[in-house]
Q: What sequence folds into this?
């Protein structure tokens, strides 16, 4: 890894005597009751790692069952519960909290020159609400879980005899964690920016987290009440979604997707914001179109609230409604295109430094563009009539969810690993694992586009034999993907325990967080910083040695 | 980043000032901003229910009208006046603490909490009546034969489903408000607040105003259906 | 030219693993599909290759550390926006136009009732027969499916027709198509509905028009009327009526409809059912409507919602008292009373007491 010259007058000299945040206080209670945003980030990291692997094991079990058209390793009901729990675990317990909870918490204060977030106790509360939600979910799973799909459509969810209530409750509680984190980040970004940190000097990661937080605060309450309504109906038979009592099951779908469509932007905007940081760091030049990338975030957030009806094209809404939602859905693609073109444009006349995080960024670019384009294809109403509820949709959202979110989570984890832990991970193993992961994702989900075209419906335990060869291909690559992920976990843990010491700025990156020691001290800076340069401005940052 | 070499330490100038904030005014602003955001999400929380109500009222206008006749509008009006009064008293509480008058602040908070309790008692009485008359949600809807007026159609059950969801959720928020204001009252009586620092009173008052505001919408929508 | 287009269509269809195009809309939808997916793939591959190309060309070597601060002008952002936007809007318009066509049922479509329930599909032609798991349709004639569910939401999906519609309890959803090629086409349930969701399959058998007519006539012959088409052996006991009109007639008596509605034109407590279907009535609000299936069903569930002028609001609601297939059968019975000269079924004698004048 390369070393960077420390800029003049940096707070690093003053901070050398202060212990870093990991060593500052010891004992279990100092972690469990911590108010330090960096320690809270690590708490999140531990939990999301567990939930990610749990969701992944469910997925692997599903793919193994799908190797054969009929009964493989489990019966139909078990399979149905597994795909539901895979979805619930991944969406609510990994995708939504991971990047904000880990990197948002750790780096927003560092990037804006603050000592902590605005409400540290609220921050810890958010984490414990999340942990409680995970425990509720696990408890539900122990009682057999539910089989409704993570979308809980009524009247199936309100009449099923499976343990749907604990799962609904878990998602409800998780929502509050999400809302409080959003409130915290918005207030932090508004009120704790250091002197000289104008809005147009904010790192793009912070812009992305800001947009995400706005969606979290406004959209999550709607899913809260919707799941509560479904839960009460299940428990008490109130009939708000029951046609026999005058209720409308499609009302549930509208309310559910009013949140769940913006929710996908809660998942993807943080990933986009990490991508901006990685591309900014490894092209070693200012990003192209900083303002457009920042503002397009709000375009996505705003129009994202207006497009939910594209999940209901075949459900029974009027043709006019379908037209309006279809049109609005197309507009979201514009804002994403802006980001993609600017990212690629940033690589022109760059000085690209190939590292594991940048490899993840390249994989991210391809998977996001293809995933995003298939999203536009799905928004084309007549095409969606064929594709709705088939594997085409499954492939589309996994390309984005896996391709964007997971790849950027891993990319961010590798990029910021030295800063967070003060250790270096082995770059060679990193590249190998990244290759396995990227190829694994592409190989697992590309066959699923073809499965969907052929008519293979989703959430199917058994299927006609002519779908089999595509399922087998998908499963083989799923195992490759899993190996890559397992490998990553292993070498990161080894590096954590035993890795070589990292310098303060091993990448020679110009962003503000690299000015602090690796790892940073408990209160981030010994004195309140004053910002006098732009986030991607390379001033006095010269590489004097290439250890690679 | 350059450091501000003159600012060496972070000894808080006031006891309530947290280390991440540079001054009291900024901390106060952050607290209020945070509470406004939280209130924004509370509005979204209720708005989904309002949407469901609007949809079903549009589907079954006659059934909703006839069902609404069976609500006790007098009580509803008294509850509205009660909550409006409590909003006034909590605003006065903030007014007085800004002048440092802790005693009056406590009095105003006590009246606010009392109004909240009165609201809950009155609404509880309404629920008891509805329970006796069989005007309950969904499968529990069994309107009693002795009810005056023409027999209620089955769709009226949907009105009561919406009514109970909305008012129970609101009452839960009233309870939370009582909790919040009680804690603020306890802290005030222990001398925690002053002219310089009264953040909790301010944000607690904001929360209470929202609880009142939601009721202002609920009352005409549920009780005054024409 | 036409041969080239046909070759392109066939080649793309197979390359993308799409089923044969067996309905009139399928080929149009596929054309749009090819357009969209080709542009998407080209764009994604181009971006990926651009990334790799830039990486190869601008890889930092030796001591050159920092890239040039290249900031293209506003034109770059404008191109980034307008380029994709043009494509997206074109796709939207074509797709919407096709969707309108998919949603607009031709007037002369042959109707079939579809009932989804865990975990099977039942089909009923208004004049008979009934079938489980096999829907026979004529090629070249539009067919309209009136679908409802007995329990939870299902979805009727025919991949070869490129069509799908959710089947919802408590309401009717419509799906129409014109099959183009004789053959048997898979039907899947496409909305999760429980343990047997992936086994809830059926087939559409498209037949040449004369073969279909012959089959239908044979089915309506009284002696064959009790046989059923079956996709797999069905667990259900055989139905007591071979067609919905008879069932509706029976129910009208059992449920008390005929206490207030006559079937022979006599005025009574409620409007007569003779000639009711497609009759224009004025409502108590002054509005005029044309009576159709939806109105009749709504009147059974919410009688005072749209009251015919001159009649009192005395009809009780049958919500919760009639299942979806029962209300559908009554609708079919009312529809059969269209023309007093022509009875849909030979009369089997009265199954009810004639309504008495008040």
A:
């Amino acid at each position: 890894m390369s070393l960077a010259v420390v800029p003049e007058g940096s707070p690093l000299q003053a901070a050398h005597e202060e212990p870093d945040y990991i060593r500052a206080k010891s004992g279990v209670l100092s972690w469990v009751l911590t108010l330090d945003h960096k320690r809270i980030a690590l708490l999140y990291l531990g939990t999301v790692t567990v939930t990610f692997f749990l969701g992944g094991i469910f997925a692997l079990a599903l793919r193994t069952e799908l190797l054969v058209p009929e009964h493989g390793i489990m019966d139909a009901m078990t399979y149905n519960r597994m795909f539901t729990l895979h979805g619930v675990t991944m969406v609510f317990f990994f995708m939504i909290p991971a990047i904000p909870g880990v990197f948002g918490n750790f780096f927003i204060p560092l990037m804006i020159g603050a000592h902590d977030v605005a409400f540290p106790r609220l921050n810890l509360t958010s984490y414990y609400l999340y942990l409680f939600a995970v425990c509720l979910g696990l408890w539900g799973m122990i009682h057999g879980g539910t089989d409704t799909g993570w979308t809980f459509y009524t009247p199936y969810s309100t009449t099923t005899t499976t343990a749907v209530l604990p799962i609904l409750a878990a998602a409800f509680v998780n929502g509050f964690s999400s809302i409080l984190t959003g409130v915290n980040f918005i207030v932090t970004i508004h009120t704790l920016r250091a002197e000289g940190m104008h809005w147009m000097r904010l790192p793009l990661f912070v812009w992305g987290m800001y947009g995400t937080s706005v969606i979290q605060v406004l959209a999550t309450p709607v899913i809260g009440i919707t799941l509560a309504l479904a839960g009460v109906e299940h428990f008490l038979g109130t009939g708000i979604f029951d046609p026999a009592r005058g209720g409308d099951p499609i009302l549930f779908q509208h309310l559910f997707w009013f949140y769940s469509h913006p929710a996908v932007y809660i998942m993807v905007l943080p990933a986009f914001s990490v991508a901006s940081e990685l591309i900014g760091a490894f092209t070693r030049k200012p990003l192209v179109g900083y303002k457009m990338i920042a503002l397009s975030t709000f375009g996505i957030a705003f129009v994202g609230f207006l497009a939910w009806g594209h999940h209901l094209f075949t459900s029974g809404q009027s043709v006019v409604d379908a037209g309006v939602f279809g049109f609005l859905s197309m507009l979201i693609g514009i804002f994403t295109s802006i980001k993609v073109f600017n990212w690629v444009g940033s690589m022109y006349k760059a000085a690209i430094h190939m590292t594991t995080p940048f490899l993840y960024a390249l994989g991210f670019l391809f998977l996001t563009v293809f995933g995003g384009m298939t999203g536009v294809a799905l928004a084309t109403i007549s095409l969606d009539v064929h594709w709705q509820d088939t594997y085409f949709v499954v492939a589309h959202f996994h390309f984005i969810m896996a391709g964007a979110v997971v790849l950027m989570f891993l990319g961010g984890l590798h990029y910021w690993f030295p800063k967070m832990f003060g250790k270096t991970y082995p770059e060679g193993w990193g590249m190998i694992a990244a290759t396995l992961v990227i190829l694994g994702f592409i190989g697992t989900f590309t066959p699923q586009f073809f499965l969907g075209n052929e008519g293979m419906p989703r959430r199917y335990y058994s299927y006609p034999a002519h779908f089999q060869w595509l399922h087998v291909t998908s499963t083989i690559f799923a195992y490759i993907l899993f190996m890559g992920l397992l490998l990553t976990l292993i070498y990161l843990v080894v590096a954590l325990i035993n890795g070589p010491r990292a310098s303060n700025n091993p990448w020679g990156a110009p962003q503000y967080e690299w000015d602090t020691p690796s790892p940073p001290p408990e209160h981030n800076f010994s004195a309140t910083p004053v910002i006098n340069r732009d986030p991607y401005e390379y001033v006095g940052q010269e590489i004097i040695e290439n250890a690679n | 980043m350059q450091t501000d070499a003159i600012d060496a330490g972070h000894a808080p100038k006031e006891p309530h000032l947290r280390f991440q904030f540079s001054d009291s005014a900024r901390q106060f602003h952050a607290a209020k901003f945070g509470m406004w955001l939280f209130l924004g999400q509370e509005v979204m929380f209720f708005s989904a229910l309002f949407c469901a109500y609007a949809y079903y009222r549009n589907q079954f206008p006659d059934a909703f009208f006839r069902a609404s006749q069976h609500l006790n509008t007098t009580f509803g009006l008294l509850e509205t006046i009660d909550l409006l009064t409590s909003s006034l008293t909590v605003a006065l509480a903030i007014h007085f603490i800004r002048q440092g008058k802790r005693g009056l602040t406590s009095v105003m908070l006590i009246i606010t909490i009392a109004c909240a309790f009165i609201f809950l008692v009155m609404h509880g009485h309404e629920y008891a009546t509805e329970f006796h008359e069989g005007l309950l949600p969904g499968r529990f809807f069994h309107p009693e034969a002795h009810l005056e007026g023409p027999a209620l159609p089955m769709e009226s059950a949907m009105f009561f489903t919406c009514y109970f969801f909305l008012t129970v959720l609101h009452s839960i928020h009233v309870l939370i408000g009582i909790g919040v204001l009680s804690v603020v009252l306890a802290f005030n009586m222990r001398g925690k607040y002053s002219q310089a620092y009264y953040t909790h009173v301010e944000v607690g008052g904001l929360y209470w105003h929202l609880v009142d505001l939601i009721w202002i919408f609920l009352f005409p929508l549920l009780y005054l259906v024409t | 030219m036409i041969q080239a287009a046909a070759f392109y269509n066939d080649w793309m269809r197979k390359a993308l693993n799409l089923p044969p195009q067996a309905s009139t809309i399928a080929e149009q939808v596929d054309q749009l599909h090819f357009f969209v997916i080709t542009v998407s793939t080209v764009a994604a591959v181009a971006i990926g290759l651009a990334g790799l190309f830039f990486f190869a060309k601008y890889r930092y070597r030796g001591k050159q550390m920092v890239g040039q601060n290249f900031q293209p002008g506003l034109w770059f952002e404008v191109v980034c926006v307008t380029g994709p936007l043009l494509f997206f809007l074109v796709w939207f318009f074509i797709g919407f136009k096709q969707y309108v066509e998919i949603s607009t049922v031709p007037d002369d479509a042959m109707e079939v009732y579809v009932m989804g329930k865990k975990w099977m599909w039942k089909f009923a032609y208004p004049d008979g027969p009934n079938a489980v798991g096999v829907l026979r349709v004529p090629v070249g004639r539009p067919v309209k499916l009136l679908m409802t569910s007995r329990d939870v939401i299902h979805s009727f999906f025919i991949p070869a027709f490129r069509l799908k519609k959710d089947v919802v309890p408590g309401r009717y959803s419509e799906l129409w198509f014109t099959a183009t090629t004789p053959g048997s086409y898979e039907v899947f349930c496409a909305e999760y509905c429980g343990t047997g969701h992936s086994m809830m399959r059926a087939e559409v058998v498209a037949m040449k028009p004369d073969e279909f007519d012959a089959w239908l006539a044979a089915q309506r012959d009284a002696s064959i009327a009790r046989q059923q088409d079956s996709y797999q052996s069905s667990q259900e006991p055989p139905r007591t009526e071979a067609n919905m009109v008879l069932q509706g007639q029976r129910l009208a008596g059992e449920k008390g409809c005929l206490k207030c509605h006559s079937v022979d034109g006599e005025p009574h407590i409620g409007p007569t059912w003779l000639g009711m279907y497609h009759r224009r009535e004025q409502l108590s609000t002054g509005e005029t409507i044309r009576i159709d299936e939806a109105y009749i069903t709504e009147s059974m569930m919410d009688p005072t919602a749209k009251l015919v002028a001159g009649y009192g609001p005395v009809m009780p609601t049958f919500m919760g008292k009639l299942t979806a297939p029962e209300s559908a059968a009554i609708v079919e019975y009312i529809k059969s009373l269209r023309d007093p000269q022509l009875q849909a079924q030979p009369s089997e004698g009265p199954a009810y007491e004639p309504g008495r004048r008040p």
Remarks:
- The two ends of chain B are 65 Å apart (CA to CA).
